[in-house]
Each structure stands twice: as C-alpha cells, then as structure tokens.
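Quick one: structure tokens for this chain, please?
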Amino acid sequence: MSPLEGLRIALGSLVANPLRSFLTLLGIIIGIAAIIAVVSVINGLNVYVADRISNLGPGVFVVDRFGVISNREAMIRALRRNKKLVMADAELLRERALLADAVATEVHARDDLTVRGETVRRVDIGGISANVLEIEPYDVDGGRIFTESEVERAVPVAFIGADIADSLYPRIDPLGRELRVGNRTFTITGVAKKRGSVFGFSRDNFVKIPITLHRRIYGARNSINISVKVADPARMQDAMDEARLILRGRHHLKYDEDDDFGILSSEGLNELWENLTKIIFRVAVFVVGVSLVVGGIVVMNIMLVSVIERRREIGLRKAVGARSRDIRLQFLIESVVLTCAGGAIGISAAWLLAWAIRSWSPLPADFPLWAPVVAFLICGTIGVFFGLNPAAKAARLDPIEALRSEG
C-alpha cells in the first residue's frame, strides 16, 4: 500500500467520525494552542521590554537606591540597608568618573495639575537636571527643555508629556502657557513626543521641572536617580565598575560588604527578563507536555478501539494480499494524520488567541513563524509513538479469525 493510499483512508476515517475525532484530539489541540500562545506572548514581551522598558539608550546606565529587586526578601533587605542617593553622590561621579561623558540627575514625586479650573490627579512630577535629555530617550515635539541656567536659578518652567498637552490644551499650543502644580505656577517651555504605553500605563503622563525647584517644593528626602552616559559604549562595564568603586568609597563600604545602591543597564534588564521568561517557558512546557502525553494516550486508546471495530476490514485486506507491514503503515498514517489534524486546529486557535491578545489587551503577542513547523513535528512524533502499539496489534491479526469477527 502506498503512503498516499494510506493518507486517503486516514482522511476518510477522520471525516466519517468528526465528533469522535475532535474529542480525541482535544488534549492535543489545547496543548499545542497553549504552548504556541505562551511563546507568542513571550516573543512579543521580549521585543516590548527591549524597546520600551529597558531602552536606556546606547552606553547608558542608571544608579538608583535599589537596582533590580527580584523578591520580597531582597526588597525588605534593601529598604533596611540601602542609603538614599543624594546630590553629592552625583556630583562626585561627575567629578571623578573619567569614563563618563555626562551625568544627569532625576527625582520623582506625585502631585495634581490645574489649568483653568481643570485638574489632573496624581501626575508624575519629575525634577531633572538640564542635560537629562542628552542621556534619557526623550524627544522634543515642540519648544525646548529648560537650560542649565534655569535649573541653577530654580526658574518655574516645565517640560510636559504628550498626554498632559492633549488633555489640558486640546486645541491650543501649550508653549508659553501656565500650568499650576500644587501651589506653584509654571511656564511651559516644551512638549515631549508621544512615547505610548507600557502594559496599559501611559509613559506620556508627566511633567518635568528643574531638580533644584523640585527639591525646594517636595523636600530633599527622596532618593535621586543618577543617569550616566559612557564616553565609549564599548567600555560600558568598565564605566559601571568605576562608578561602583567611587560610590562604595563615598559610602565607606568594606571590601566584603554588598553595595548599598543598585546599577541598572539595558543589558542587565534584558538579561533579567530573559531569565524570567525562560522559567515561564519551562513551566509552560512541562504543563503542556502533560497535556500532550494525555492527548497521545487518548489517541492510542481510540486507535485500539478502531482496530477492534475494523477487524473484518483488516482480515479482508490481508485475504486479498495486504502484508502485515501494509496494515501497520496504514494505522500509523491514520494515527499521524489524526494528531496532525489536532495540531492544525491548535495552531489556528493559537494564532487567533495571539491576535486577540494583541488587539484587545495591552499585552503584545508576536506569533512565531517557526511554530507551525515545530507543532507538526511534535504532533507527528506523538502520532508515531502512540500509534505503534495499535498498528502492531492490527498487523498481528490472523486474517481467518478477523474475517470471522462480527465487527
């Protein structure tokens, strides 16, 4: 029997019992759809994180109080031990970090904005140094960032995000207009280009003011973030080590003591994220693997039932000249076709799920082009492995006994 003939018989059997075939394949469908959907979301998140969350710019790292916190115990330990970073830390880096091209500072608070009686609640008010735009990826859509002189003199000027401009100045140019933050009035000097959202949270809902004025308004108790741009991006690690040594010396840390501050870089954040997604993927593979094994066992049981139901057919085929290997090949092809049909449905379901996630939620999902190939290979392997026993049982049937069967 040719493989094409076996394929024709397998497809005929699949179409003849659609409900039984679907219920048989339910485990495989769910398993394939789940693993591809998880991979799609992870792929999308990897691009998303690299593009929007960990994009500090080339050759840029940030020194802050905590760094990357991966668990609750680490957070409690950092709160107890890590000191708040102050302007003197930034000044020391600016003076002594030979590998740094620029050092900028930023501190954050939350406050309400008011324009002509309209209020926006809990906006991120960032106090920044004038050179922060040389380091952080903010693009100016209109106007300008404030100058170093304005920062030194604590002039009440503001650089606002696109969402603030759209909500408070929907039909007019905000440049040169006044904005009330808390009890202070600021003049808008510039508007940032729209940056979009991260997981549904806007990155354009902010107001930047001179850090000197920010600390007068909100106090100097909040820890600052120090952004450092490296003169030679190829020496990024050397520059981070240099900054670490300078700050450890200023904080009087012993050689065997841990840092009481954190250092963040795009590479470090991406590496942390990749490690996290690897764990998620391994857990997903284990859970989906159980589903696929259960689905394979169901396929084997149904194929064994099929052998019993078609004993007469098998006997007739052997009586007219079919060899045992022809019968074995026929049932193996049927098993593979059955599992691959489940894989095809699972792939379609995963594509629709990825499209729905991408369209109707803040989570990105990037359907991997290699997924169908891998899915069919997995389904084919399941079909062969779990189809061997039914195929062997069918091949061993005695044609005389099979023809006497009532099945």
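The longest helix spans residues 266-309.
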